[in-house]
Prior knowledge:
The protein is mainly beta. It has helices spanning about 20-25, 105-115; strands at about 45, 55-60, 65-75, 80-85, 90-95, 115-120, 125-130, 135-145, 145-155.
Amino acid sequence: DVPPxxxxxxxxxxxxxxxxxxxxxxxxxDLDEVNDDIKYVKRHxxxxxxxxxxxxxxxxxxxxxxxxxxVTARRGERLRAVLTHGKGQVDLYLWRAGTRTVSTESxxxxxxxxxxxxxxxxxxxxxATTAERTGRYYVNAYARSGHGSxxxxxxxxxxx
Length: 160
């Protein structure tokens, strides 16, 4: 980053540090990108019993604010997502089956479709719900501030 601090029209996100460019580890590939809203999510997955889905990705308040993942669950099953991250603040949303967008601009959408939310200033966010019906549920990581790598674990368990 070069002055002024943060992203700006003169230098964008900053200048390239040649030594760092060839010696530092690259962030993990975000294989599911573009996944900024439900309409862009091309695949949905179902976790195996006892094995959560694991996503490793990168999020950025300036360039990649939202990451959305689809998971299939059956009525009565318990969905749980745990996101761990480094820098910044990343909020975690869990959206019900039938949701058409993860936009929070419409309070009606939030009231009707949001199943759970976690937005602390910590490095770990957890959301969970019991599936009201069979279908695709959506987990949404949202960069409130900063940027960095994260790991998202999504599990589905059957009722006992």
